[in-house]
Amino acid sequence: MKEPITNIFKEEFNPAFLFTWKGRRTRDEIYYHAHDHLEIAFILSGCGRYRIDGELYDVEEGDLLILNPHVLHQGLVKSEENPATEFFVGAAELWLQGFAENTLPTPDDGPILHTQGELRQKIFRLCTSMESEKTADWEGRYFMMKAYMMQLLLLVLKTRMEPEEITDGRSFESVNKKYVVEQILDYFEDHYAEKISLDRIAGNMYLSPFYISRIFKSEVGDTPIRHLINIRLEKAMELMQSGFSGSIQEVAARVGYEDAYHFSKLFKKRYGYPPSQVKRKKSSDLL
């Protein structure tokens, strides 16, 4: 392992933020290319392969690629069943003492930093924050994304500026899963009345439906679809008990079902009696 580096910062640390990009690697990059700026790629999930300066490197969830200026690189597909979901950040105007412009120090064994534990968790959260801020519509968006990028660069530099701490990588796996499940639960609560498909949710999160179903069940104890059904039925019960005067068809539509008969079957299976009985009881209570 290389000795920790020191005196790396010049008087000002103020790199320029260039871009972010998030996507799933489903085909090989066409061009073997290089840039004048710094590019960092973090593997959010799955696995892949990179050709970097003539060498092939396999990458997987938690790996961070440091693609310094003029370093030739090309993203490749390793597994069609479990493709890599990658998050790229571009930076420029980076000057560090003892390094060329826009250059970050790399690990001993090449341009890939294999993260684990708390470091991996922090990088995952920064990437997620940048992706979220990218869609925000306000004038400070650039500066917020730049702030997250600077934290990312400093975390990478910190690995070379102090002894490496050995941690258990399982902590990241747990946090990563919990975060994904929390996002799905929030989405269900906000959009239960809309048409929802597991494929759509998986596509929005750049994950496979199978992976989402597996981690959701491991965290919640039920499948995403059954959990969504329960939310809809609970909302329907609350709606009818609040005195809603609409028909069963309207109740069904309010909670995301076009077919009132299908809704009634699900409701009866859950509560042991049809929704019409709830409405009749509520009406008699008001007399």
Biggest beta-sheet profile: 5 strands, antiparallel
The succession of helices and strands, N to C, reads EEEEEEEEHHHHHHHHH
Note poorly predicted spans.
Answer: 163-172
- Helix content percent band: 40-55%
Count the beta strands: 8
Task: Give the key terms.
287 residues, alpha+beta, five-stranded antiparallel beta sheet, three-stranded antiparallel beta sheet, elongated
Provide an overview of this structure.
- The chain is of the alpha+beta class.
- It has 9 helices and 8 strands.
- The strands form 2 sheets. The chain has a 5-stranded antiparallel beta sheet with strand order 1-7-2-5-8, with helices on one face. Strands 4-3-6 form a 3-stranded antiparallel beta sheet, with no helix packed on it.
- α1 packs parallel to α3 and α3 crosses α5.
- About 3% of the residues have low confidence.
Give me the secondary-structure topology.
Elements (H helix, E strand, L loop, with lengths): L15 E9 L13 E8 L1 E6 L2 E6 L2 E5 L5 E4 L8 E8 L19 E3 L2 H18 L6 H21 L8 H22 L6 H7 L4 H12 L3 H18 L6 H7 L5 H12 L3 H12 L1
Antiparallel strand pairs: 1-7, 2-5, 2-7, 3-4, 3-6, 5-8
Quick rundown:
This protein is of the alpha+beta class. It has helices at 117-134, 141-161, 170-191, 198-204, 209-220, 224-241, 248-254, 260-271, 275-286, and strands spanning 16-24, 38-45, 47-52, 55-60, 63-67, 73-76, 85-92, 112-114.
